[in-house]
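Bug #77: duplicate submission created two jobs. Keeping one. Sequence:
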Amino acid sequence: MTHLFTGIVEEIGTVSAVKPGPNSLQLAIRCTTVLSDVKKGDSIAVNGVCLTVSGFSNTQFTADVMPETVQATTLHTLRTGNPVNLERAMAANGRFGGHIVSGHVDSTGEIMSVRPKGNATYMDISVATELLKYFIPKGSVTVDGTSLTVFGVTDKGFTISLIPVTQGDSIIGRKKPGDRANVECDMLAKYMERLMMTNKTNSTGGVTMDTLTSSGFLS
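Kept job's structure:
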């Protein structure tokens, strides 16, 4: 089952233990809010990465990180005491405050600059060239699990603006130049690209039931 998130961080947890394996690792994260209704097998986004709860207590939960996730995200850089953004999977009856987030990171990006502007902080983040097509001004992006608005796009990356609430409620406000962050592009942009690519091979043109099925919208 695919779980969705909103990119609205519920709390900042603290890494209490990191147990590395040959190509994987296990994280233990101390927290409070996300434990209120936690069950084994639940999905919790940690810095924007969807992880499955393998165990929990009154003060923390544990999750295993697979080799592919270790390589594709910044989770392998976590150390005991590091703060992390946490969000439970979206409930069916919950309010939708951010944008659709899958918890599957597309790439990591590097913080290139951080500059204050009034009560906001502007941050430039570089990403792989092949991802630039998914960014547009006023579009959405998820950085370390935080839903943000894209304020500008360059040939190297994108710019975000952090309001005071985001700076205080998310670890992204603590990032500095040279730090890396998990980046998930707008899911709707990726779906649209897939539809358009599929439609090019459809001789009748337009979106059809076959197009939707081949694109994964229908089964």
